[in-house]
Amino acid sequence: MNQLKTAFDALASRFDDQRKYIIPSMDEFYEAAAWAAMHDRDNPSVLDIGAGTGLFAALVLERYPGASVTLLDVSEGMLAVARERFAGNRNVSYITGDYSTMDLPGRYDMVISALSIHHLPHDEKRVLYGKVFTALNPGGVFVNADQVLAESPWLEEQFRRYWDAYLAKGTLPAGELETIKNRRDTFDRNWHLDGQLAWLRECGFSDVDVIYKNRMFVVFMGRKAS
């Protein structure tokens, strides 16, 4: 995790600008994630794990302007960018920490995450989903917008070709493009979608479903029954 923290601290100031060249159909991906972040309360409490620069949280705040949002991330650099994004919003708080090793603080109506959990080893993903379930209030929802491993090696190869072709079409400088590919090959630990949905159900989540999927980029969710 220390290497991951160092990598994301280094790219924090460029992360948002890079993202549209990294994620195919980025707007659709995040719009689906924001749609899935639903609750009956007008002012829900939200925990964003692996919050980064706060992009996902910002979309949730557009939908629920009175929400109280806690951003949790291991990278101080990423959270510094988030602090600029939410400057003046007293309903947003920040925690620097490693959510894979710490207990999730407090209780929430939503726990959200975008492009973060896939960095964990698979056994830690499974444990984290249990911690998320515990941290949710009854009726709360968990939304994960993330990367997954294809269900077969052949299909995984096709996914990779699709992603590489998208990266090649972008306008990122060659050095940045190489850094992104190296970061992907070094830090990404994608796992099968079906297996992760099963883990959510085992933890006690209901209404588990896939909201969006574009090859390896997916949005899936679960709800803690009232």
How would you describe what is shown here?
This protein has helices spanning 2-11, 15-22, 26-36, 55-63, 76-85, 122-135, 153-169, 174-187, 193-203; strands at residues 45-49, 68-73, 92-96, 108-114, 136-147, 206-214, 217-223. Strands 3-2-1-4-5-7-6 form a seven-stranded mixed β-sheet, sandwiched between helices. β4, α6 (122-135) and β5 (136-147) form a beta-alpha-beta unit. It is α/β, with parallel strands linked by helices and 226 residues long. The protein has one domain: 3-Layer(aba) Sandwich (Rossmann fold), CATH 3.40.50.150. α3 crosses α4 (55-63). It has nine helices and seven strands. The longest helix has 17 residues, at 153-169. The model has no long low-confidence stretch (mean pLDDT 93).
Concise account of the structure shown:
This protein is α/β, with parallel strands linked by helices. The chain has helices spanning 2-11, 15-22, 26-36, 55-63, 76-85, 122-135, 153-169, 174-187, 193-203; strands at 45-49, 68-73, 92-96, 108-114, 136-147, 206-214, 217-223.
Question: Which features does this protein show?
Answer:
226 residues; Rossmann fold; 7-stranded mixed sheet; 9 helices; 46% helix; 23% strand
